């Protein structure tokens, strides 16, 4: 294994509650812009109940592309351009929380000391990723940061990893991915990565990570998993 790619929210840092606020605001704006017969039903279909997002719903763990498909089904209209522009506006105005999950920082330091290349692949924007790196003073920890802009590829599309494979001479089987959602695990499968590690510090329940090669409580256990994998 040469590279270890980490998801950000829910994997490196505690799940950012500001994402939930953005998701709810996006749906509310959607239903104001594209009125439907019953807003309450629409909220439930998209995964919003009692002003909270249901973790395994499309708003809880789906990609923006998956959300747009649901928006189109509910409104009966093409919401793609509106949704991409509006979600970008909401993300740009977000005030993120950046709290490391206990032990993960030290684990990444240890992995770097052992010679592994460390990257981030996140559904957050470049601005959000940069805010995280600056707020936590951790820019030097990461060799590559892959973010998701308005028209960029998203997990689980394997093309999301093109910035890695285009810039570095590394084979997919030499790459591991660590994440807290089913889409992180599907990215590993679609890109034919060598190892996928699911963590339970984010939004997904253990059964949702069933496609992972290994499931651990936290990313602080990744070093032990990689060590065991390397010995096989």
What is the element layout, followed by pairings?
Elements: E1 3-6, H1 17-33, H2 39-46, E2 48-49, E3 52-53, H3 58-61, H4 64-75, H5 80-92, H6 104-113, E4 117-121, H7 126-135, E5 144-146, H8 162-167, E6 175-179, H9 182-190, E7 195-199, E8 214-216, H10 222-231
Parallel strand pairs: 1-4, 1-6, 4-5, 6-7, 7-8
Antiparallel strand pairs: 2-3
Helix pairs in contact: 1-5
Keywords: Hydrolase
Organism: Staphylococcus pasteuri_A
GO biological process, one term: DNA repair
Question: Between the first and last Cα atoms, what is the distance in angstroms?
Answer: 12 Å
Largest sheet: 6 strands, parallel
Structural class assignment: alpha/beta
Give the rounded overall mean pLDDT. Answer: 92
What's the shape? elongated
Q: What's the number of extended β-strand segments?
A: 8
Order of helices and strands: EHHEEHHHHEHEHEHEEH
Strand percent estimate: 5-15%
Q: If you compute it from the alpha carbons, what radius of gyration comes out, rounded to the nearest whole angstrom? A: 18 Å
Helix content bin: 40-55%
User: How would you write the strand order of the largest sheet?
Assistant: 5-4-1-6-7-8
How many helical elements?
A: 10
Can you tell me the residue ranges where pLDDT is under 50 for at least 5 consecutive residues? none
């Amino acid at each position: 294994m040469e590279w270890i790619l980490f998801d950000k929210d829910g994997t490196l840092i505690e799940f950012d509650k500001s994402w939930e606020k953005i998701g709810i605001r996006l749906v509310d704006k959607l239903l104001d812009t594209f009125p439907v017969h019953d807003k309450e039903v629409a909220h439930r279909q998209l995964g919003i109940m009692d002003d909270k997002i249901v973790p395994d719903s499309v708003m809880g763990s789906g990609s923006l592309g998956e959300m747009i498909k649901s928006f189109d089904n509910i409104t009966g209209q093409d919401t793609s351009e509106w949704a991409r522009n509006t979600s970008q506006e909401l993300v740009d105005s977000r005030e993120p929380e950046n709290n490391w999950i206990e032990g993960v920082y030290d684990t990444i330091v240890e992995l770097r000391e052992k010679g592994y290349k460390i990257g981030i692949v996140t559904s957050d924007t470049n601005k959000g990723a940069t805010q995280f790196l600056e707020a936590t003073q951790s820019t030097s920890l990461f060799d590559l940061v892959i973010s998701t802009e308005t028209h960029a590829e998203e997990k689980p599309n394997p093309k999301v990893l093109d910035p890695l494979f285009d810039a570095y001479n590394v084979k997919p089987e030499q790459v591991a991915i660590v994440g807290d959602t089913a889409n992180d695990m599907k990215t590993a499968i679609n890109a034919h990565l060598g190892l996928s590690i699911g963590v339970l510090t984010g939004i997904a329940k253990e059964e949702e990570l069933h496609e992972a090669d290994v499931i651990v409580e936290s990313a602080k256990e990744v070093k032990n998993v990689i060590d065991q994998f390397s010995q096989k």
